[in-house]
Design brief:
Number of domains of chain A: 1
Distance between the termini of chain B: 76 Å
Number of strands of chain B: 11
CATH superfamily of chain A: Nucleic acid-binding proteins
Strand order of the largest sheet of chain A: 2-3-4-6-5
Mean pLDDT of chain B: 90
CATH topology of chain A: OB fold (Dihydrolipoamide Acetyltransferase, E2P)
Distance between the termini of chain A: 61 Å
Number of domains of chain B: 1
Number of helices of chain A: 2
Strand content of chain B: 15-25%
Low-confidence stretches of chain A: 1-13
Oligomer: heterodimer
Radius of gyration of chain A: 19 Å
Largest sheet of chain A: 5 strands, mixed, barrel
CATH architecture of chain A: Beta Barrel
CATH class of chain A: Mainly Beta
Structural class of chain A: alpha+beta
Number of helices of chain B: 7
Order of helices and strands of chain B: HEHHHHHHEEEEEEEEEE
């Protein structure tokens, strides 16, 4: 699959708290998806990095860089040096750069077998949305009229 | 006094000191030692992932309680509360000098542009790991971000009058009941966590304690800076106990190859 641009609103969990100047490089209001073969994955600080080869519409191979949060953060979610291996074929979604360069900030990776990889913040967001659903249910129960 | 008596007196003094220890060792102290990391997975705790204020938390709670917001994703309402916090709490407390550049463009952050480690007014709120070691005469703090390290002296020593300001300043601490209180001064001018400039006149009082269940580390900081703040600000943060986490080297920072100015939050 070549490079696919998707205009969508995908706010990171800490949009206003980006502590490594995310916004000057990446456009958090859009996501894109590319597919290709991983050539390198480095689990380092302050940002983990992945390189991959992606074929464009003309059949040219373009090297893409995928930037992740750092090892400090990813290891909290159980990531290791072997979480992504060179040679793997993957489909990756993320926030593109403002300039349109072949680079993105990671949001989601799908392996050839269909399994997914998401940033550790996805688990936090899932737990918070469940807390909010419980809060809404409790509110609704409190405001419901009592039946005799 | 004969030489024998003098030696006896010195020995007795040494024994008394060894048994009782220095004055700082006799204080009851809370157990804050160990590894702490990002806050629990709740809406309010997560708002304090980097830093928060009571004004921001109250506003967020109002948004969470309003049924009209039930369908909005958390990142969206969290960002709204952050914006409120910036404009309704921090902005009115800034001096004209600091207001002129608030909020700073994230593309001008030296940490981003030049891989320069954070200064005190941002580092103490750093996300991820914070490892605390409590010794008799000092507390050692090590942060995952930038692998920054601080020593907090418990013997009351003051910085020398001619000591130049440093990145993380000079910190002295004491225990007050269940709280570690740290006073910091002699910090270099820098950038705060809330994207305002700060000066080398900054002084801060940090208060660290554990939550009632012991699982959270709570920080409340009162910060003063006559150059940037018209009145003190009170800023908070939360960590979770994280005994299984560790701090990894922080040595692969790369300067950006491309960036755009003017992308920060208004």
């Amino acid at each position: 699959m070549p490079y696919v641009a998707v205009a969508t609103l995908l706010l990171p969990l800490y949009a206003a708290h980006s502590h490594h100047a995310f916004s000057p490089v990446f456009d958090e209001s859009r996501t894109i998806t590319v597919a290709g073969a991983v050539t390198e994955f480095r689990l380092v600080n302050p940002h983990a990095m992945m390189s991959m080869e992606v074929s464009d519409d003309a059949g040219n191979v373009v090297e893409w860089t995928v930037e992740f949060s750092g090892r400090l953060n990813l290891t909290v979610g159980g990531w290791t040096d072997d979480t992504i291996s060179p040679g793997e074929r993957v489909t990756v979604s993320g926030n593109p750069t403002h300039t349109g360069s072949p680079r993105m900030f990671f949001r989601r990776l799908v392996r050839a077998d269909g399994t997914e990889l998401r940033p550790p913040s996805a688990a936090r967001q899932g737990a918070i949305e469940e807390e909010r659903r419980q809060r809404a249910r409790a509110r609704a129960e409190q405001s419901a009229p009592e039946l005799d | 006094m004969s030489g024998c008596r003098a030696r006896f007196a010195l020995l007795a003094l040494t024994l008394v000191t060894a048994i009782s220890g220095p004055a700082v060792a006799q204080e009851r102290r809370p157990d804050l030692a160990g590894m702490w990391s990002d806050p629990p997975f709740t809406a309010l705790d997560s708002f304090c992932y980097f830093f928060c204020t009571d004004a921001g938390l109250d506003y967020l709670e109002g948004l969470l309680d309003d049924p009209a917001n039930d369908e909005r994703p958390y990142p969206e309402i969290s960002a709204e509360a952050s914006k409120h916090q910036q404009n309704q709490y921090f902005r009115p407390r800034l001096t004209a000098a600091a207001s002129a550049t608030f909020p700073l463009d994230p593309a001008d952050d030296p940490g981003f542009l030049y891989c320069e480690p954070w200064g005190f007014t941002r580092q103490i709120f750093a996300p991820h790991q914070l490892e605390i070691r409590q010794e008799v005469d000092r507390v050692e703090m090590r942060y995952g971000e930038w692998d920054a390290r601080r020593t907090i002296y418990l013997d009351g020593r003051r910085p020398a009058a001619d000591q130049p300001p440093t990145l993380l300043g000079h910190s002295v601490g004491r225990y007050e009941g269940d709280t570690l209180v740290i006073e910091t001064s002699a910090v270099r001018a820098g950038i705060t966590a809330w994207d305002a400039e700060s000066s080398d006149q900054t002084r801060a009082v940090e208060r660290y304690s554990r939550s009632a269940d012991g699982e959270r580390l709570l920080l409340s900081v009162t910060m003063e800076d006559p150059w940037s703040l018209a009145e003190p600000v009170v800023v908070k943060k939360v960590w979770s106990r994280a005994p299984d986490q560790q701090i990894f080297p922080y040595e692969d920072c790369e300067r950006p190859t491309e960036f755009t100015r003017g992308t920060g939050q208004p």
